[in-house]
Write a structure and sequence with these properties.
9% of the residues lie in helices and 36% in strands. The protein is mainly beta. The N and C termini lie far apart (57 Å).
Length: 437
């Protein structure tokens, strides 16, 4: 081969390899992916309490990405053989994969109970945030252990708990637990007698003052965050508190001494002018359901509720999902599917893990695995249209406290829930999508 031909081939090889260097390949699996520092939980909670844009559905892929070695800065020598290195980068979102995040229930080492108190997907951070409550009895969010799990780096990092917006002076005036419970001097733990639910979006709080007797029924009160305009609404201690997007309505419950998530649900007007049970308003009964609490639409005055038109039915086939229009107080059937559910972020549909609940049976419910299916119910259609997202999802229908908390992410096509295994633990399951999707 002549020198001219040799030189021409060498220059052509450099030119071809240099062209590939303009691409920006993904880093190999051995290279940590830089992610933003997670914000405080307080800012996260403030963000999710307002309507947020819908997540973009990006199905995960289990196909490795082939990345060419970047040779832009390589020194090439004439007659040297260059091999392009291809390195598979496994996707962190592999369909069918399950990741355990936290063991719940009682720990054998400490004999303390652990409950899933909250769970939030953070698509922009490529992470999930969750909170664990330790010990029995009610505690505020500032007492929970908050965690940030990075989906790509598989790192679980502790987060600083949110600070309460209710001052010590306001707490003293409303007869609430002090900011530091160690300052409490009562005969029993303050959390057994007190309830406090804050809404930093609507500048409101729902609470039950500490009672003189540890086992008193308690009271339901509402007030501004600074303690002003306090108003008693009912003679029961609130089990939970959910606010409508406009702050005009409150959904709350009176815990019934049965299953841990069994409650009588109420709809309350913000000004206290109206407080009625949802069963009385709609004729839809949910007395025997465990943990399927009502959820307000993120965009308009509507309330999604689970229940049966058959009073105190023990047949799970009688239970369905309904929407209550808060302007007219009229309800309508949405779907025959029932189980763990959540609104889509844009409010145009709902996700339902059909069959994922503790059945209201008269007979003892066996602790067996159920195969459940995840559906999207499109509310923009009339009647609403159902779309199967994934099928055959394992679910153990345990009835432990707070096991009804879950979250589905259409961005990552994954669910975070308690029930994948016959152990009480929180985990993430990346879904194998239905073939028609």
């Amino acid at each position: 081969m002549s020198k001219q031909t040799h030189l021409f081939c060498w220059l052509l090889l450099v030119l071809l390899l240099g062209c590939t260097s303009n691409e920006a390949p993904n880093p190999p699996s051995s290279t940590p992916v830089a992610t933003p520092v997670p914000p405080s939980v307080a800012s996260i909670r403030a963000t999710i309490e307002v309507a947020t844009p819908s997540e973009i559905s990006v199905p995960p892929t289990g196909t490795p990405t082939l990345i060419p070695l970047n040779t832009a800065t390589s020194t090439l020598v004439a007659d040297e053989t260059i091999e392009l290195s291809i390195q598979p980068v496994p996707s962190p979102l592999i369909a069918g994969q399950y990741i355990t995040l936290a063991q719940l229930d009682r720990e054998s080492t400490s004999n303390e109970y652990r409950y899933l108190a909250d769970i939030i997907w953070e698509p922009e951070q490529q992470a999930i945030i969750y909170a664990i409550q330790e010990g029995i009895g009610y505690t505020e969010a500032k007492e929970w252990a908050w965690w940030h799990f990075d989906l790509f780096n598989r790192e679980n990092l502790p987060l600083e708990a949110p600070q309460s917006l209710v001052s010590s002076e306001t707490r003293a005036a409303l007869n609430l637990c002090p900011l530091n419970e160690q300052d409490w001097t009562g005969p029993t733990r303050c959390g057994f007698m007190n309830r406090l639910f804050e809404s930093n979006v609507h500048d409101l709080l729902v609470f039950s003052p500490t009672a003189e007797e540890p086992y008193a029924e308690g009271e339901l009160w509402i007030a501004n965050m600074d303690g002003s305009n306090a108003q008693k609404l009912a003679d029961f201690r609130p089990f939970y508190a959910h606010w409508s997007i406009d702050g005009q309505w409150l959904a709350t419950g009176w815990a019934f001494p049965g299953l841990p998530g069994q409650a009588i649900h109420y709809l309350v007007a913000r000004d206290g002018s109206s407080i009625e049970t949802l069963q009385h308003i709609t004729g839809i009964d949910s007395f025997y359901l465990n943990g399927l609490f009502p959820q307000f639409s993120p965009i308009k005055p509507e309330l999604l509720i689970a229940g049966s038109e058959v009073y105190e039915s023990r047949d799970e086939n009688d239970y369905k999902l309904y929407i209550l229009d808060l302007n007219t107080l009229e309800s309508r059937l949405v779907t025959d599917r029932v189980g763990l559910f959540q609104w889509a972020d844009n409010g145009q549909g709902i996700y339902v893990l059909d069959g994922a609940f503790y059945p209201p049976s008269i007979e003892p419910v066996p602790f067996d695995m159920r195969e459940t299916n995840l559906y999207y119910i499109d509310l923009t259609q009339n009647p609403p249209q159902e779309y199967l997202i994934a099928s055959g999802i394992p679910y153990y229908s345990n009835n432990d406290y707070d096991t009804w908390n879950w979250a589905y992410s259409p961005t990552f096509q994954a669910i975070a829930y308690v029930g994948y295994q016959d152990e009480i633990e929180l985990g993430i399951l990346f879904l194998e999508l239905d073939e028609e999707n």
